[in-house]
Write a structure and sequence with these properties.
Helices cover 40% and strands 14% of the residues. The protein is of the alpha/beta class. GO terms for molecular function: carbohydrate binding; DNA binding. Keywords: DNA-binding, Transcription, Transcription regulation.
Length: 332
């Protein structure tokens, strides 16, 4: 089979994607495309030489390699990624988002289901993500407030701009006005369709909010008496609309009857749960979430990582995660 000039780039890209992204063998590719194994090998070489395929090999360790390994062991996490702390919050969030995007880009696989929550660090993740293979983006929580830029919808929209992805939006508030309203919303077919994805997520991505001290976007959504109740019940962190105390136990309130979001057991069954958060004021909240056992990966700043390493280690997480095979980061 000879390659015509008009078809060469398309064929080179097709062969390269099958081999490097879909992990097909040269024999399988040859069978599907009616090519010999040796022809496939030559096309892969030509794809590299022409620049269609660009391979980056990272030989150097992270600046914080030792700290990352120590903290991952300390908190029983599969992976910790540490970036430089920065006095400018917006710059720091951008660094966190860039590091998280690089990690997601290396572990994501074709046809993955990726759950997205909300948070100011997630928009930088979306901005820094390289084009992804075909995936499904699923909103993990209802919308907080009326600002679309703070919602999972905006995060998903930015990722979808340069990726072959399908988006499943949860067109509902995070907390409905009443229990009856929440029940009605949960019965909506479009909401049930999104909920159906929560039991088979491959990756979940969220920020973490702090309640002691207050560093959370949820506070402005609650009446003072609700915030006071959360304080009295010892809430330390919020994650995907859920509340947890300093020991990593879920704190239940009347808000849970009005909440439209994923449940802790569904988070625990997700293969990779990545939290992206920095700032010393969030240290206690991050420690609380580590104690839950729900997280697999934490992307944070150097000063927070050092403080976490000085806190109590995780020995018995609140939730037991099913055994998942750790995904190796690919040289995307």
């Amino acid at each position: 089979m000879s390659i015509q000039p008009a078809d060469s780039v398309e064929l080179l890209a097709e062969v390269a994607e099958r081999f490097y992204v879909e992990d097909q063998s040269k024999t399988e590719i040859g069978k599907d495309l009616n090519l010999s194994r040796f022809k496939v090998a030559r096309l892969l070489e030509e794809a590299r030489d022409s620049g269609i395929v660009q391979i980056t090999i990272r030989r150097t360790r992270s600046t914080y390699y030792d700290l990352e390994i120590a903290l991952a062991n300390h908190l029983q996490l599969e992976r910790v990624i540490v970036v430089d702390a920065d006095p400018i919050a917006e710059t720091e969030r951008d660094h966190l988002g860039e590091a998280a995007a690089e990690y997601v880009g290396r572990i994501v696989q074709k046809d993955d289901i990726i759950g997205l929550a909300w948070g100011r660090t997630l928009l930088p993740v979306a901005n820094h993500l390289d084009p992804l293979p075909r995936v499904t983006l699923v909103q993990l929580t209802g919308v907080v407030g009326n600002d679309i830029t703070r919602s999972p919808i905006e995060v998903a929209a930015r990722i979808r701009e340069n990726s072959h992805s399908e988006t499943k939006a949860l067109l509902a508030p995070l907390y409905a006005a009443s229990v009856n309203t929440a029940r009605a919303l949960r019965r909506e077919p479009s909401v049930q369709n999104v909920f159906a994805y929560y039991d088979r997520l491959d990756i979940a991505l969220s920020s973490i909010g702090s309640w002691q001290p207050r560093v959370t976007q949820l506070e402005s959504e609650f009446a003072p008496e609700i915030s006071q109740e959360l304080d009295e019940k010892g809430v330390a962190a919020d994650f995907c609309g859920l509340f947890f105390d300093a020991e990593g136990h879920q704190v239940l309130t009347d808000l849970d009857h009005r909440r439209i979001s994923i449940e802790p057991d569904q988070i625990a069954r997700t293969t990779q749960v990545i939290a992206v958060a920095g700032g010393l004021d969030k240290t206690n909240a991050l420690h609380s979430m580590a104690l839950t056992g729900l997280l697999t990966c934490l992307v944070t700043t150097s000063n927070v990582a050092e403080q976490l390493l000085a806190m109590t280690s995780v020995s018995r997480p609140t939730w037991t995660r099913p055994h998942h095979r750790l995904r190796a980061a690919s040289p995307r």
